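Hello Y.,

Per our agreement to keep a running log of every chain we model this quarter, I'm adding this entry. I've kept the format consistent with earlier entries: sequence first, then predicted structure.
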Amino acid sequence: MAADSNAQRLSHCNLPIFLIPVPKDKIKGPDNLNSSHSFKRPGWFQENFLDRYWKNFTSHYLHVADGVRSRHMDNVAAGRPFAPGTKDGIDRSLNTIAELAMEYQSACADKDTVHARAVAQKIQKKASALRVLECLSNMECSKLLENKTAQLSPCYETIVNKRDNRASLLSPLHTIQMCNPKFRKDILMECTTWIAECTRDNCIFWLNGEPGCGKSVVAHWFADGCEKRNSLAASYVFTKPTSTAALLDGFVANLATDFAEYLGDPWRNALVSTATNIGLEKYADQFFTRPLRHQMGKLLVPTFFVIDPTQQKPLLVVLDGLDKCDDFALKALFELIEEAILHLPICFFISSTETKVLTAYLRQGPLSKHVQECHIPGPYLNRPGPNRASTPTPVNINLPASE
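Predicted structure for the entry above:
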């Protein structure tokens, strides 16, 4: 048993490789099988005739744990900081789940359905708790990075204090129905083709459609896929009515701190230098009431060009829910986008319901020449109902390959 256990570990990081009975794309189950938190236990007919050992149920949660394992390895390899005890806690949970996976395999081999189902329930509880621990760890990691950088200058601390962590599209505080890559594959392929071939002429991708058609699901899927490939510079989601004042106060701060995650220390050091030069520490209140175009031009654009050219990267910004902004806020936002496109190697993925104001800016205004539009028609996605909990932002979706 010890030899078998050692065979299931990665030698360079001592993390387990899970024995998963059913491949992810072969799992069959209820309509919420794409949720990374919930998968209903088999009903009477399923467990007695179709899936006596609960293999689909068990495999779902082992895939959840395996996704955490993969991301945890990436974080360790990248040297990301962990709050005290968090890394060891994740390691222990992964090892426990790996042992349960082997115990489950043994129960199936012995044709012991009662024991197999009992172990499956343990795996479900451990994997769900592990996913929550990962979310908490990510939040703590962001705080540690921000606190570490804030020590460089009070100016940076001023920017961090303006940031709204809830506005990040991939924040664990958001919940969203999972996106099945087999659903609307043509829409998903259009998104991935755009980012692969994006130029200055089509640097704005506008995903639109009626309320409830799945725009946010696709936007989250796209942002998550890009983030995994280290190509997402920033994201922002508008979840409630947004005024110009609210936008001026924190939007650029979110972009600045997201860019710091994307470009690393070169951006942080350059941002501190730029913020100091413009006296941000002393005049922060005045600065964050100036038009967004001014904030972009005085803070973010100069910072980017302070960075050594060998460390500069193209910038992708994903914005979801622009229809929540009032007319004046939209005007300010599109002025920022114009300023950014004029000076930076940047592209924008925009998801929104069609409104008269948005249509005027993106189909008829000066920005229209940069817009590639994609419309999502019906039928609607299967949205969570009152008796079905919302499911979290996608964490383990692969971009569909070109055919």
